[in-house]
């Protein structure tokens, strides 16, 4: 009886809405081996009734349930539900699950922006759960760890916003740079666009080529600006240009800022090392380093290096993540660990694949 009670407390019943997408199957990969997690409901409308392992053979022998249609009653029986769905799905059903006590970790952008009008402007939809926006905690553990612990609803940051914010934060928190001119030049692998069929993601379109997109405005701009302004305590003016690159996973962000006064490479290095000294998933590399996306492929780590170029008086920060791990599902699991009082790196101690 005593053991059963302990088991009931430590095994987290998990639901995943949208478990056949790229972030959904990454959640399955990260959770499948855990003894403290029971995958109770994994949804797909298209593959309702199909065993998970029939679709994802890498999970054979580890996950023996089938996909099912999203059903709020079944989901509400879970301790935590991940929404790995396109924008506007979570905002339609999160409230009913939360009313039954279920905790929500939303990988979409439904609850990331605190300004509802701004969200509606960028996502071109009416927000259907405005009352939850204030309640939602922005799930960047390196900034909001204490609030995440108590949260019933976590909005997991987007992939570009994770790489860009982590890279800029030390400079802005220290008030070291001109906030009226920040530049983020970021590149993403094609899995960032999701698993749905789309011409831009075809091999012939996306390989052997590199292009910028969203130059006139990308929906991650307001999300990144919101986080940077909070860190700086003042308005910021950010130029953010995303690019599509011919690789499957990875985000590489090159960040530029102008110092307000005298700085040195050594001072910047110390600043970054001190800011992230206690962070398990941020690796500040030695001076002169140039991190590659392959260093973090499959891992939950953000690797970064800070440079100072005296000739142009410019600070350059290089920040890399795996868009599907620290940029989405890994960070979502990191949030779950914090919410349930578990070691933050539980199930996330994976080294990068490198090749
Ligand atoms: N890909 C990435 O690198 C990142 C993605 N994100 C965000 O995470 C979310 C998921 O992205 P990703 O995995 O790439 O998306 P995919 O397009 O790969 O997968 C979407 C999943 O959601 C399900 N789905 C689609 N529409 C609905 C609906 N109306 N109701 C219920 N389920 C639905 C799909 O299954 P079915 O249609 O069968 O139900 C599928 O399983 C998105 O909001 C994305 O912006 C965030 C950071 C990084
Ligand atoms: C390469 C690519 O297409 N990337 C996606 C970003 C994916 C993501 O993380 O964004 P959200 O969660 O905010 O949708 C894009 O630019 O739309």
Model description:
- The protein has two domains: 2-135, 3-Layer(aba) Sandwich (Rossmann fold), CATH 3.40.50; 159-324, Dihydrodipicolinate Reductase, domain 2 (2-Layer Sandwich).
- The protein is built from 13 helices and 13 strands.
- Residues 1-7 have low confidence and may be disordered.
- α8 packs parallel to α13 (325-339).
- α2 links the parallel β1 (12-17) and β2 (37-42).
- The longest helix has 15 residues, at 159-173.
- The strands form two sheets. The chain has a seven-stranded mixed β-sheet with strand order 8-9-7-10-13-12-11. The chain has a six-stranded parallel β-sheet with strand order 2-1-3-4-6-5, sandwiched between helices.
- With 355 residues, the protein is α/β, with parallel strands linked by helices.
- The structure holds NADPH dihydro-nicotinamide-adenine-dinucleotide phosphate and N-acetyl-L-glutamyl 5-phosphate.
- The site of N-acetyl-L-glutamyl 5-phosphate (X2W) has 10 residues, from β9.
- It is found in: Cytoplasm.
- It is an enzyme of class 1 (oxidoreductase).
Question: Which helices and strands occur, and which strands form pairs?
Answer:
Blueprint: H1 2-10, E1 12-17, H2 22-31, E2 37-42, H3 52-55, H4 72-76, E3 80-83, H5 90-99, E4 103-106, H6 116-123, H7 130-133, E5 137-138, H8 141-150, E6 153-155, H9 159-173, E7 182-188, H10 203-206, E8 211-212, H11 220-232, E9 238-244, E10 251-257, H12 265-275, E11 282-284, E12 302-309, E13 314-321, H13 325-339
Parallel strand pairs: 1-2, 1-3, 3-4, 4-6, 5-6, 7-9, 11-12
Antiparallel strand pairs: 7-10, 8-9, 10-13, 12-13
Helix pairs in contact: 2-13, 8-13, 9-11
Bound molecules: NADPH dihydro-nicotinamide-adenine-dinucleotide phosphate and N-acetyl-L-glutamyl 5-phosphate.
């Amino acid at each position: 009886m005593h053991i059963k009670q302990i088991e009931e407390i430590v095994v987290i019943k998990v639901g995943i809405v949208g478990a056949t997408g790229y972030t959904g199957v990454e959640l399955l990969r990260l959770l499948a081996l855990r003894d403290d997690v029971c995958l109770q409901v994994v949804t797909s409308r298209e593959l309702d009734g199909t065993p998970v392992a029939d679709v994802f053979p890498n999970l054979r022998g580890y996950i023996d349930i089938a996909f099912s249609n999203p059903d709020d009653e079944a989901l509400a029986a879970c301790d935590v539900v991940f929404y790995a769905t396109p924008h506007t799905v979570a905002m339609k059903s999160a409230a009913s699950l939360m009313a039954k006590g279920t905790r929500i970790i939303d990988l979409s952008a439904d609850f990331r922006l605190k300004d509802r009008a701004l969200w509606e402007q960028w996502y071109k939809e009416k927000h259907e759960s405005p009352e939850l926006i204030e309640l939602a905690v922005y799930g960047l553990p390196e900034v909001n760890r204490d609030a995440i612990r108590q949260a019933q609803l976590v909005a997991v940051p987007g992939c570009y916003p994770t790489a860009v914010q982590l890279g800029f934060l030390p400079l802005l928190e220290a008030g070291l740079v001109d906030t009226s001119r920040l530049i983020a030049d970021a590149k993403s692998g094609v899995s960032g666009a999701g698993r749905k069929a789309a011409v831009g993601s075809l091999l012939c379109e996306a390989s052997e080529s590199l292009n910028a997109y969203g130059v006139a405005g990308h929906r991650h701009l307001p999300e990144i600006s919101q986080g940077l302004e909070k860190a700086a305590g003042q308005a910021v003016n950010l130029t953010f240009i995303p690019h599509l690159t011919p690789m499957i996973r990875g985000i590489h962000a090159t960040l530029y800022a102008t110092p307000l006064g005298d700085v040195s490479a050594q001072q910047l290095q110390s600043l970054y090392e001190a800011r992230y000294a206690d962070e398990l998933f941020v690796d500040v590399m030695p001076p002169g380093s140039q991190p590659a996306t392959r260093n973090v492929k499959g891992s939950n780590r953000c690797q970064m290096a800070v440079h100072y170029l005296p000739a142009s008086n410019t600070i350059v920060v290089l920040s890399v993540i795996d868009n599907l791990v620290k940029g989405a599902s890994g960070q979502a699991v990191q949030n779950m660990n914090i919410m349930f009082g578990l070691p933050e790196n539980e199930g996330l101690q994976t080294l990068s694949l490198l090749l």
